[in-house]
Amino acid sequence: MERDKNQNTPIVRAASSDLADPVLAIEAVFRELDPPTLSGVILFCSSRYDLAKLASAIAARSEGLTVIGCTSSGEITPEGLCEGTITAIGFPADAFAFSAVRFDELDRFEAAHAHQAVRALVADAAERARPLGPDVSRAAIFLVDGLSHREEMLTITVQDALGDIPLIGGSSGDGLDFRETFVFHDGVFRRDAALVGILTSRHRMHAFRSQYYSPGRVKMVVTAADPVDRIVREINAEPAGEEYARLVGVPFQELGPAIFASHPPMVRAGGEYYCRSVQSLNPDGSLTFYCAIDEGIVLTLGEAHDVLGEMRGLFDRLDDAVGGIDRVIGFDCVLNSVELAQRQIGRDMSALFADRRVIGFNTYGEQYHALHVNQTFSGLAIGR
Q1: CA–centroid distance for 181 within its chain
Q2: pTM here?
Q3: Residue 252 to residue 93: CA distance in whole angstroms
Q4: How is residue 37 annotated by DSSP?
Q5: Kind and range of the H or E element at 137?
Q6: CA 298: distance to chain centroid?
Q7: Which pLDDT tens digit goes with each residue over 39-82?
């Protein structure tokens, strides 16, 4: 059910700019957000921008304000799905409190230290939220270098430290280049880093995870893999790329993002199926995955059905959950955008996102509670 877009002006602010000059783009975005009235900002930035100039422009306009962000593989703007923009969401200080912590050198990540840091963040967030009163909702926003390969360990540790505060987030991207991905904090874009920001509000908030893929009938077993680098070398004791192509029913030469998006391998865990999506075909015929993968795992090829119908149903449920949607912070897997293009429904999905007030970005993976997943649309619904 579509709403009157002129009705119920959103409390949570959003702005986007596709100006090529990063300074002019940030000026346009922050002019709409009105930083002095905010408690925090989350930015999603196309990797096409000069990040050093962009960081300086952000820092010059956000002194004293908690600002976190990341590079993206596409942005969800107030007008819908776009590429090549700087898109931001701002939280008014009279209804929200926002604070964040950063973890660097993820290869040296220590769970005990991280646990202490997150618990300190929880205490700081509670102190900052005192003016909002006792009846508040809380959620944690997680942003991480999308090429770090450390999401699984991080999400488990951080969610444990957060206790009953739900974690939701996304892995930064750079289109489909897989070269360099960054997160933004304290005025700098950084690699090999992760951010946790706690958002507290008088408004109802609801973290969610959704996917429009379900398991089919074709199964396979990973028989040789490099779990550290997320590389699968053999499936069913055959070269991984060749066997995957055979099971999907396409020539090996056609393997690429379009095939990976339409036929995601899925794993069953805890009674549910989760996508374990393929990122790329390597020169030696092996497959690199977006998520953790190991030998002995049984995978099932997934299939998508009524994509738009399922998404409309999701938004209706979210509307009920928060008493009417004000904004949705959305983390949408980059392979979902590939699938939308193949089905020629990208424009329809873009219009649906705009109508339901979604702001976010296309990710290299999504985080939900203690899980790192792929090919989902996940996020945080904020009520009116």
Answers
A1: 13
A2: 0.92
A3: 54
A4: G
A5: strand 137-144
A6: 26
A7: 999 999 999 999 999 999 999 999 889 999 999 999 999 999 99
